[in-house]
Amino acid sequence: MGVSFIVMSRAATPRATVVADQGPSNLAGDSDLIVIPDPGRVRGKRAFDLVAGTILAITTIPMQLLALAVSAIAFRSWPIFSQQRVGRDGETFVIHKVRSLPVETPSSASKYDVDFQQNSWAGQLLRKTHLDESIQFWAVITGRLSLVGPRPEMVSLATDYDPTFLAIRTSVTPGITGLWQISDASEQLIAENPQYDLAYTSHRTWSLEFWIMFRTVLKMAVGRTVTIKDLEKVETIGLSRRARRRRADLTA
User: Fold this and answer.
1) Which of 139-145's residues contact partners 24+ apart within 8 Å by CB, and which partners?
2) Distance between CA 104 and CA 189 in Å, rounded?
3) Among 25, 67, 160, 240, which is most exposed with the fewest C-beta within 10 angstroms?
4) Distance between first and last Cα of the chain
């Protein structure tokens, strides 16, 4: 049976069912599922993250140093900002970013709070280009982050999440980039647009991983974001080649 994805409204509250990961072609009801990951897939994704993360961490060192220097000069403070975030299985960990906001900004400030705060041109540049997240490639090497996955949420905001939605999105390793991160909804709060994380957690394949990475580059290059309509493609991208052939046979 193929996967069908239902776009949830902001007010929708998912109900969760725990199932074994037998591949996207065996899942139905998608957004209500907490998938127990297949150990082989977890090891494969971890191996890819380790290799790709190491390459990216090393090759972007000049970019990281530049971002740190710009931050230190602009804010006249230690250029690394640390914050508690919610990771896989609900465990908290410390995430590091290049400082891109004034020192007096509360660590619990939400995206909306930040929008109303005055910021320097340097801080705006770091945030717009995502250079403030460049040092997070090192967290991919340690396994705290993945290259692709739901964005780790601030502890202060996660406490207000629907418990089921929180359990679903933390059933996988959080990522530097992901469906929500590259969507037009990234200007809002994660909980206001749960459909992006729910789509990713229920349609995970290598095809989808690489599609997200490609769209990440596209967003950074020309500003093109993923929209609600693009989520309809996630089902097809999230199906393995064998599953697509099976679906074609069933519909023929």
Assistant:
1) 139/95, 139/96, 140/49, 140/50, 140/52, 140/53, 140/56, 140/57, 140/176, 141/50, 141/53, 141/54, 141/57, 143/46, 143/49, 143/173, 144/87, 144/93, 144/95, 145/95, 145/173, 145/174, 145/175, 145/176
2) 22
3) 160
4) 14
pLDDT of res. 238: 59
Please report the pLDDT score of residue 244 as a whole number.
52
Dihedrals phi, psi of 18, to nearest 5 degrees: -90, 125
**DSSP-based three-state secondary structure for 34:** strand
Q: Give whole-number Cα distances, 34 to 31, 56, 88, 222, 229, in Å.
A: 8, 30, 13, 34, 24
Q: Which of 147, 145, 56, 132 is nearest to 98 (CA)?
A: 132
d(CA 238, CA 3): 9
pLDDT at 20: 45
Which regions in the chain score pLDDT beneath 70?
1-37, 235-236, 238-252
Q: Where are the domains of the chain?
A: 17-247
Which pLDDT value is given to residue 9?
Answer: 36
State both tokens at 169. Answer: 């999105």
Residue with structure tokens 């297949």? 38
Q: Residues near 252 by Cβ (< 8 Å), separated by ≥ 6? A: none
As a whole number of angstroms, the distance between CA 170 and CA 197 comes to: 10
Give 170-215 as a DSSP string: TTS--EEE-TTTTBGGGGS-GGG-THHHHHHHHS--HHHHHHHHHH
Residues 6+ apart with CB under 8 A from 34: 16, 17, 18, 19, 167, 168, 171, 201
pLDDT attached to residue 108: 80
